[in-house]
Amino acid sequence: MNLRSVSINRMIMSYLLAVYCFLLPFEEVLVLPFGSVLKIFGLLVMAVAFVFMAANNFRMQLKWLWLFGWLLYCAVSVIWTPSLEWWQYYLSIYAGQAAFVFFVAHLPVSYINLKIVKKGLIIGAFIAALILIVTPKQSSFTSDGRRTIMFLNAKMDPNVLAIIMVIAIFCVLSLYERGRHPIYTAGALAVILLLVAGVFLTGSRGAVISLVLTALIMASLIVRKQSQRKTAFYVLLGIAVAILLLYFVLPDDLLDNRYSLTSLLGLNEYDNKMHNRYTIWQHSLDLFVKRPLFGYGCGSFFSVIETVYKKSAAHNLLVLELVELGVVGTIPIAVFFSKTALQAKKYCEISDFCIWISVLIFSLSLDSIPFKYFWITVMLISVAIKQGRERRLADG
Hints:
Radius of gyration: 21 Å
Helix content: over 70%
Strand content: under 5%
Mean pLDDT: 86
Low-confidence stretches: none
Strand order of the largest sheet: 1-2
Number of strands: 4
């Protein structure tokens, strides 16, 4: 294939992915009668990626066999799952998203410009954060000051919206180049500040914890490189200043109800015996003990938790997998995620590695795996790993 064709394919794939990432914060509010705009566009991206991948020779890494093993187990669990409806629903989500990631991750490295893709995500998250800040009447949805995007009686899940903004923050850090004009630095800081404000306005405690812990991890990794110790200091200082400024401008009810220490940890809900994650996890443990090896089947959590508590989400990716698939079914996906993290640590820039870490931390408070933000992160990291490996081979 000549250089002109490669250049055209690179432009097509990069901008398709950038638009997909741009639409990510608006999935639940931009809906047509036959499906969300994001889903329709995702099918287009997947089709183009498949055509490009099929036209090139590719080598599949062994780690992908673990993902396919997990999918196969999800499919086989139809034999014992209590609800075929939920099994079919979640299996279709997992299969579609896994195919999307697989096709894109196995394109030649020259076919994707990650900077363009990340900019699409940053712009989408920036606009979403701006909506939360400048249109409180349209975006406020609870009495305690939480906000989300609302359009035509539809609203975005505030937790999903928040983690997309967290991902965008680390995308900004990954694109930031030291030594450029001060206006560029000021612009990057302004975007990060606005995104941090958006995260806090959603009232998502899991996203806030993920942001702070990942920033600390990023700083600790950077500080080991003597030449970048100033960068580590600036990362922490920037996040700290943003949080301090927000403390004086956020509504008092949001601060009291969502961001006190007891609220952040959910202890007030647990002590008052309200619907909370700790109670869900306690009942989930009882379910797991009854079927520790094979679980209750793909998509079964809603059905089985209702038998011991009430219908609710797992609010934890590991809890979800252990209950639905047991130890046998959880091992393959855990190995895939672990290998992805190890490869990212080895081949990616620290900020890219932290994108993956932020999502994993957030997944301790939300199921994550049925949502597109989770899989788009797997795609971003997988492409970054492949490009990092190619650069290392080229450098000898």
